[in-house]
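hey
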């Protein structure tokens, strides 16, 4: 089970989130404002018997609009950094989920389920509530539909690894027309600056982390490590193990990049392991160097391009 939540944001949003001393604010949206217009169609199959559909509409009415904030289960999702982290120039805020729940005891927190079809289980609940006319069966139907509506999304969004927090209306404040959920800054475990963050942004993130008393990392794009990794304030490499940010078990002695599992017994990453002898051998075997020395490289490439494009 994930212990932490990760909120991706632009640099300016970090400033706005920390305007209230001792608290961090996260913007919430109603289901009708979600960026995926198909989410609300994934609850019940609209092709069921018309009488069942009429009962469904009459029993549930309009979907309650509870304030919801969207997080990710991982701080190293490349598309998330691109789409929500200002092209890797922004930040990720790491939140301790247990502390959030302790503070907002009425909040509902769960993973988003990714699917391209309506929930088949709801059809059975709908039929039973219709046939039995028992209040408890209608109650069970209500709960199931609400969960499906708030925690279901099309599979094309699965890369987000989303985990949602549905807040009670009473725990939300209206700030300039925006629904904001304020949490104590003690819930913040770390601030992570993007791999392309400016020096100014990195320094700002570091100042905020010092002020809050949380960890600070800078995201890095490795040369040989297959995922983004994180560097802490003391320049030690960290990775995300699927549940938490942890120190890398092994790192390159030269560039300090985490070493992949397949090279765990090596002291150097693949690139730093290249010696002068390797480089010399590569030069000797690079046929393009021979062609360039003979002054025919450009002609060779043009001829190959013509063959490749079907011109000859």
């Amino acid at each position: 089970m994930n212990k932490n939540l990760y909120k991706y944001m632009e640099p300016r949003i970090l400033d706005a989130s920390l305007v209230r001393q001792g608290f961090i604010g996260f913007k919430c949206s109603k289901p009708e404002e979600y960026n995926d217009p198909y989410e609300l169609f994934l609850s019940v199959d609209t092709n069921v018997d018309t009488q069942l559909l009429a009962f469904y509409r009459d029993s549930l009415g309009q979907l309650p609009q509870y304030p919801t904030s969207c997080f990710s289960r991982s701080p190293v999702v490349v598309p998330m950094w691109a789409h929500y982290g200002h092209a890797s120039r922004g930040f990720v805020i790491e939140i301790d989920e247990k502390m959030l729940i302790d503070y907002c005891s009425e909040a509902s927190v769960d993973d988003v389920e990714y699917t391209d079809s309506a929930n088949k289980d709801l059809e059975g609940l709908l039929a039973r509530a219709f046939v039995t006319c028992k209040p408890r069966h209608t109650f069970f139907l209500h709960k199931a539909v609400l969960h499906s509506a708030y925690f279901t999304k099309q599979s094309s969004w699965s890369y987000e690894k989303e985990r949602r927090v549905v807040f009670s209306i009473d725990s939300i404040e209206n700030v300039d027309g925006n629904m904001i959920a304020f949490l104590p800054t003690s819930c913040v475990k770390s601030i992570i600056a993007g791999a392309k963050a400016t020096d100014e942004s990195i320094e700002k993130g570091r100042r905020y982390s010092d002020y809050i008393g949380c960890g600070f990392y800078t995201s890095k794009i490795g040369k040989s490590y297959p995922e983004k990794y994180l560097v802490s304030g003391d320049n030690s490499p960290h990775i995300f193990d699927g549940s938490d940010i942890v120190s890398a078990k092994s790192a390159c002695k030269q560039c300090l990049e985490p070493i992949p599992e397949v090279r765990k017994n090596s002291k150097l990453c693949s690139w730093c392991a290249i010696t002068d002898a390797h480089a010399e051998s590569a030069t000797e075997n690079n046929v393009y160097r021979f062609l360039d020395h003979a002054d025919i490289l450009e002609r060779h490439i043009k001829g190959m391009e013509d063959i490749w494009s079907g011109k000859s």
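The first strand starts at residue 4 and ends at 9. The chain has a mean pLDDT of 91.
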